Amino acid sequence: MQLPVIIVGGGLGGLATAVRLAAQGRRVILCEQNERVGGKLNLHQADGYTFDTGPSLLTMPWVIRDLFAVAGRRMEDYLCLEQVEPTCRYFWPDGTRFDAWQRLPQLIQEIERISPADVPNFFRFMAHTARIYDAVAGPFLLRPFDGLRELITPTMVRHALRIDALRSVDAAVRSFFRSPYLRQLFNRYATYNGSSPYLSPATFNLIAYIELAEGGWYVRGGMYQLAVALARLATELGVELRVRAPVTEVIVERGLACGVRLADGCLLPAAAVVINADPLYACERLIPGFQREANRLARFDPSYSGVVLFLGVEGDFPQLAHHNIFFSADYSAEFRAIVHERQPALEPTIYVAATCRSDPAHAPPGHMNLFVLVNAPADDGRIDWEAVIPAYRDHIIARLEMMGLSGLRQSIRYSHHWTPRDLARRYNAAFGAIYGLSSNSPLSAFARPPLRVRRVRGLYFVGGGTHPGGGIPLVLLSGQAVTARIVADQPL
User: Which of 74, 190, 232, 467 has CA atoms 20 to 30 A from the CA of 253?
Assistant: First the structure.
């Protein structure tokens, strides 16, 4: 019997890798430390309320469709995807509101309503970001690289100026839009990978292009159903899924990854090992002799973390859509606090997801489930989150009430919270960072560890901590890329 490929961690990257390897006839064992797979894409349930706890919006659905097709299956037989309209509803402290519709005529009407002069600017921006996407999709997104030398190809050099890497997201957005509302709205897309729009390269404006050009989607039943579907597919293909099976060590002999040790002492031999976990954590705790690599990763800026409130409320707030953003009045001050001062923002931008708008069963009749997320600094130990969180929770709720959710505090029937420290413990995420390393410089992408570990044969990384980065489609694409490397390294 062939030795299995062992995957450490059952996040989306691990599941995608398991599916692709099994579809090629490989034996696969996936070990997940928690009680269910999904990683950060998970759920929290209590008192009749259901909350998605990780990614809440799906883009590039063709990536999922391709993954099922590799296994000879139809995505539609496992998942029901629905476009969310509007994709997001934005609120400002002065009462301004903006609905980001996916239907172009309605979106243009919204832009014209708040800034008529920016209608042609929007089309210029979309043309510009389309060029960025065309330049980077092949070499960076669809064919993630193992190092700088692999990325620098004649095509990439030819397109160097097109990717707009020498100015910030904010500088590029300001060059297109006059309206301060639209500038803040488009700056927000840098936060999708845990970065500041004032520091991250303008290349990341392609995130806005992808969402606006291809649409934003929701998985019927909750985003966690994506993990359920991939686990079902993996099992059908013969993958052995082990939950509550934490791995404590990758066994390395003579420079070769040849197995893993579980917390119960069990040794599992392997033909190759794929780590779907935070690379810094893995280098510190799982891979012997990799403290130097861990020290190198620790020198780079982590992405920000978050404060999460799970609020079950009685009644209805009709102004809320499925996805909502309540902007701060001073975006730059907010990011100065989070990125430079490493402190919670006094006036934070607040994201609120009410999945009951699309799935009424996510809350009892006459109630709403509000998933509330505020960006927060990575946990470097300077903040005593247990002491800070009660007052900060009340502050967030007060901000929401001030911005239109009157009576929210009195309506709460269930409340729970996570801090950056909780995220670090739950997911072994270094510093509680949600997205691994930040993208706050033009060269930050090259700080991520490569898919193929250089010093150990048969050892690989997959997921948001490696290439091409965080977010559902990119994590799934990393599974495609690492599978290609394993197959090339170890043909059947």
Answer: 467
